[in-house]
Design goal:
Elements: H1 6-26, E1 35-43, E2 47-48, E3 51-52, E4 59-68, E5 71-79, E6 88-96, E7 99-100, E8 103-113, E9 124-136, E10 139-148, E11 158-168, E12 173-184, E13 190-200, E14 205-214, E15 226-234
Antiparallel strand pairs: 1-4, 1-15, 2-3, 4-5, 5-6, 6-8, 7-8, 8-9, 9-10, 10-11, 11-12, 12-13, 13-14, 14-15
Length: 235
């Protein structure tokens, strides 16, 4: 398993701790106690924004999330194998997820850190993300807009816009499909899509089988089509 630098973990933990403290200040005295959730995962390929990030190798991940009322903060860590030399990715998220106008919203600030990146290449950058989602019976939909003013490496300003639709087949099985478009200044631009099924094997364990692809195979192996299987354990 790839290593993750201690300073990177400390930075992420500090962001989450600050977010939790802010949540306690904002929440009313009668608010529910914060909840803490953990998740461990293994996948045949780590994929982000439709692109392979572990060079076709199995990736291991872990996540901790703290939430209270409409506020949430989390740290997600996964092994990776990127062209920049990075051997892992740490994603720290702080967000506010209210309900309004019949929709569920999620406004988040995201920090991505790439331990192992070779010298001279940006290994840390920020994203600003907004989700709008709604469910009607077994059907669900989500629109995501993600923006970074200065991405990793040579990438500067970049946008990722993704629409996702889902259908609950049974109480334990859900099918989803998504279509996303990435535009970037100084970085790769492409359209990506995925479709698959997630099934809960138990209350804590879920399996996901999904096909990912893009319209830019000429950009290299990470942009080619792939079938990805994943298992997650939540506790």
């Amino acid at each position: 398993m790839s290593s993750v630098s201690l300073p990177s973990i400390r930075r992420s933990a500090a962001v989450v701790a600050s977010a939790v403290a802010s949540t306690w200040v904002v929440a009313s005295p009668a608010a529910a106690d914060p909840s803490v959730d953990f998740q461990l995962g293994v996948t045949s390929e780590y994929v982000g924004k439709g692109v392979g990030k572990s060079n076709g190798e199995v990736a291991w991940s872990g996540q901790v999330e703290v939430s209270q009322n409409d506020f949430h903060a989390s740290v997600f860590v996964s092994t990776a194998e990127l062209s920049s030399g990075a051997d892992s990715e740490i994603v720290t998220t702080v967000g506010w997820a209210p309900e309004a106008l019949g929709f569920e919203w999620d406004f988040a600030v995201v920090n991505r850190d790439l331990p192992g990146t070779r010298a001279g290449v940006d290994a840390n950058y920020w994203e600003y993300q907004a989700d709008m989602s709604r469910s009607i019976g077994p059907v669900s939909g989500r629109l995501r807009v993600n923006y970074t003013p200065d991405g990793s490496g040579a990438t500067q300003e970049a946008w990722w816009v993704e629409a996702q639709g889902g259908y609950r087949i049974t109480g334990k099985t859900r099918a989803t499909a998504a279509l996303g478009v990435r535009t970037a200044e100084g970085g790769a631009e492409y359209t990506a899509w995925n479709a698959g099924v997630k099934h809960k094997l138990t209350d804590a364990i879920a399996a996901d089988l999904r096909w990912y692809d893009t319209d830019e195979h000429d950009l290299g192996e990470p942009y080619e089509g792939r079938l990805v299987g994943a298992l997650t354990y939540a506790f």
